[in-house]
Amino acid sequence: MHDSHHDDHPDDDVAMRVRALEDLLVARGLVDRAAIDAFVDAYENRIGPRNGARVVARAWSDPGFRKRLLADAPRAIAELGLGGLQGEQLVVLENNDAVHNMVVCTLCSCYPWPVLGLPPVWYKSAPYRSRAVSDPRGVLREFGVEVPVDREVRIWDSSAEIRYMVLPQRPRGSDSLDEAALAALVTRDGMIGTALV
Fold it and tell me: Is the pTM of this model over 0.85?
């Protein structure tokens, strides 16, 4: 396999089955590998995270939208034409000077696809799923995030019934930026809580 999404967890049974099925479909001429790669790239890097970045930028720019987003995320994101499968029970958590939120799914990989796209491989890994709960500050350090000792770290466990997204703190000095420029600052990992903006 030639792309990173094919080689992330070679020991994982599901990943091995998916690779075998993909290889079989490609070998029989039923599926084009480039089309699969384009689909995965779109959901990992453009469609989902870009949508979430728009939501964050609007919340940073519009206090009324921010209030609606924190009160009823599905309704608020619908104002931007977003929503759908895996986003019906979305809750948005706001990072601030007192609290840093981080999202995990300890049972599997429940994730808000409409705003974040496909979950990253590390999000689905057993080490992240267990250590995010037992050693969140250590996990954050591994992502390059040093949370001040006086700031509470809250871990939110996504499930089939409820999914979470983090509203990162707006960067200092960004007051003059418009929504498009603000959205360009937002990363998928920042909306999971494993990165700062």
Answer: no
